[in-house]
Specification:
CATH topology of the largest domain: Rossmann fold
Number of domains: 2
Distance between the termini: 25 Å
Bound molecules: 1,4-dihydronicotinamide adenine dinucleotide
Shape: globular
Strand order of the largest sheet: 8-7-6-9-10-11-12
CATH superfamily of the largest domain: NAD(P)-binding Rossmann-like Domain
Structural class: alpha/beta
Strand content: 5-15%
Helix content: 25-40%
Number of strands: 12
């Protein structure tokens, strides 16, 4: 029986994996800690590892896993910016869940926008305190406003459809525009200049790192809303904070934060948070922070568990790895995966 170790596991993660365990015949070991070079020694005796968004799979971690004979790392998420693929190549197959519910993330992005714009977060607290004043709760109609979407992949396109339902005009930027979509594609500068709300749905890469920064904020409309449900480092948080202070940015919805890895998913309600930028952002009435929960629906959790276990089954049964992340072909063009259905 293959022994699989899960890192950064919370009770809600286990539900679907436990339900599907018998079908696959794996033995599971759950760790609350994140995977990194300090915790990798817990993998001794395991046959495979399941990791999540804030685990650090760097060269040192990979070498430790490799030393224990582990050859498969299954990410139970879509993003993979936390893996050093150069070090993993030839040692560790890295598989992921490319899509589990684009609807979950897109719907959360819209939930954040509606909450922020119509001040639901403030109204909820007021009425619980029997304060029925509506002063200061004025929002604006989404109808007729322009939504700028950076990254029009699976999530970005579902989000565009939701926005269309509100009667919004959609502008998109993506180096690989979607065919057959009725998104109007523009360059980034136009998107920044024309959008009333800008929503980020691109992966974290060297091109998207701090795509929202001091200079690009300057190009934006006064009072623009920034929505980030992709990866924290797409936004320069300090520049965002400064622009909210001056009023240049009218509001921000953040499901991700660039320094989230040691903070999000944990209960720090009894602790003084040392991250001054995050603390200041959270203190603002026009900023909503959720703790990387955009994916968190029953449907998404079920899909994550099914795809992750299927990825592991393919590996152990020597089949092609449908969801392996290819490193070599994008760099050197000689793609082993095309012939052997595995990257190496
Ligand atoms: P996807 O791969 O379907 O779409 C990403 C799109 O971004 C592609 O169309 C790609 O061409 C585009 N892109 C690449 N480089 C770009 C650039 N420099 N500028 C603009 N666009 C660029 O991915 P999907 O499923 O839509 O996910 C998007 C992102 O959402 C993921 O990379 C992940 O970081 C994030 N995510 C967040 C979750 C959460 O719980 N908050 C859950 C799942 C994903």
């Amino acid at each position: 029986m293959k022994r699989i170790g899960f890192f950064d596991t919370k009770p809600y993660d286990k539900i679907w994996f436990e339900k599907l365990k018998d079908k696959y015949g794996f033995e599971f070991k759950y760790f609350e800690s994140k995977l990194n070079s300090d915790t990798a020694m817990m993998c001794s005796g395991l046959d495979g590892v399941v990791a999540f968004v804030n685990d650090v799979i760097d060269e040192k971690t990979i070498d430790i896993l490799n030393g224990y004979g582990i050859k498969i790392l299954a990410l139970r998420c879509a993003g993979y910016n936390n893996v050093d693929f150069k070090s993993a190549f030839g040692k560790l197959h890295v598989v992921r869940v490319p899509a589990y519910s684009p609807h979950a993330v897109a719907e959360h992005a819209m939930a954040l926008i509606l909450t922020l714009n119509r001040k639901i977060h403030r109204a909820y607290i007021r009425t619980r305190d029997f304060n029925f004043s509506i002063s200061g709760l004025t929002g604006f109609d989404l109808y007729g406003k322009t939504m700028g979407i950076i990254g029009t992949g699976k999530i970005g396109r579902v989000f565009a459809d939701i926005c269309k339902g509100f009667g919004m005009k959609i502008l998109g930027y993506d180096p690989f525009p979607a065919k057959d979509s009725n998104i109007e594609y523009v360059d980034l500068e136009q998107l920044f200049r024309q959008s009333d709300i800008i929503s980020l749905h691109a992966p974290l890469t060297k091109d998207t790192y701090h795509v929202i920064n001091k200079d690009t904020i300057e190009l934006m409309k006064d009072g623009v809303y920034i929505v980030n449900t992709s990866r924290g480092a797409l936004v320069d948080s300090e520049a965002l904070l400064n622009a909210i202070k001056t009023g240049k940015i009218g509001g921000a919805c953040l499901d991700v934060y660039e320094e989230e890895s040691d903070i999000f998913f944990e209960d720090y309600s009894n602790v003084v948070i040392k991250d001054d930028i995050l603390a200041r952002l959270i203190s603002m009435p026009n900023v909503i922070v959720t703790s990387h929960q955009a994916f968190l629906t029953d449907e998404a959790l079920k899909n994550i568990a099914e795809t992750t276990l299927e990825n592991l089954r393919e590996f152990y049964e020597n089949e092609g790895l449908t969801n392996e992340i290819c490193y070599q072909c994008t760099r050197y063009g000689n793609c082993a995966k095309k012939e052997k259905e595995r990257c190496f």
